[in-house]
Amino acid sequence: MSSKVRWQHYLTGYGLLGLLRLSSWLPFEFSLKLGRALGWLIYYLVSSRRRICQTNVALCFPELNAAQQQALVKNSFKVQGQALIETAHAWYKPVDYWLTRVDTKGFELLAQAMQQQQGILLTCAHFGSLDLYGAIMANFCQFDLVQRDLNNPIVNARMQQARRRYGQPIQRRDSKAMIRALRAKRILFYAPDQDFGRKNSVFVDFFNIPTATLTATTRLASLGRAKVLFGFPHQTSWCYRMQVEDPQQIPSDNPEADARLYNEWLEAKIRQVPEQYLWQHRRFKTRPSQDEPRLY
Q1: 30-80 pLDDT, tens digit each
Q2: For residue range 15-29, what is the model confidence (pLDDT) as tens digits?
Q3: What angle do CA 119, 125, 131 make, to 5 degrees?
Q4: Residue 234 in contact with residue 272, Cβ under 8 Å?
Q5: Integer angstrom CA distances of residue 150 from 78, 115, 229, 242
Q6: Phi and psi at residue 97, in whole multiples of 5°?
Q7: What is the set of domains in the chain, with CATH numbers?
């Protein structure tokens, strides 16, 4: 790493962390309004992410007219701006701060699996701030979480420090560490709903589009001898809710069927709160045939 890059990391890293720390001191509801305003600003300034989001919404919701699709895109950016502020509060506030703002459903499934001395693969997706829901869950259980390092080492170090209050962060390519955690009868929190290319993926429908979908859920659950539960983090009109469900059929001896079941479940949840999902990711980047035209 060159000195110039290192200097840039310090400048941008500490600058961003300073802003996040400041936002965590503001009254919570007021800071969320600022976050939504920030998302609105990003919508207009970051054209590349705006185009990705518009493409995803058009592909997944063809039944909406142009005005409805555009409204969903704008609301999505507002939610993502709010999620940044929620992440700041999650990093800098104690975990018990969230007890009065949270509703849980299905946590008895976690308790049952833990009583049966099973590891739990809590399979989630990118709704809002996952750090926020991590802080919420830390009031009820300890868990490990699969993550990708951030490009800025200063911000990444702060993220790691915050997340270690919940459990042990595990790099998303370290499958051996994930399996060890599951065999140690721990809860592993991970979100396999992004496009990581053809390797270890199958093409199954997601919003009626053949989509590269990871088969890691089946492999991790089988090798880790773990119980698979689905986690649906979302915001209601009055609280943050973490909802846990039991897919029952996973893992099976058919990774493609398991991936299809996950996509069907995820699509149903997205349709409940479409603006809360991360549409700014190139979910359909990898196509079944390399001869197909790119969607982005």
Answers
A1: 999 999 999 999 999 999 999 999 999 999 999 999 999 999 999 999 999
A2: 999 999 999 999 999
A3: 85
A4: yes
A5: 22, 35, 27, 25
A6: -60, -30
A7: 3-276 (3.40.1130)
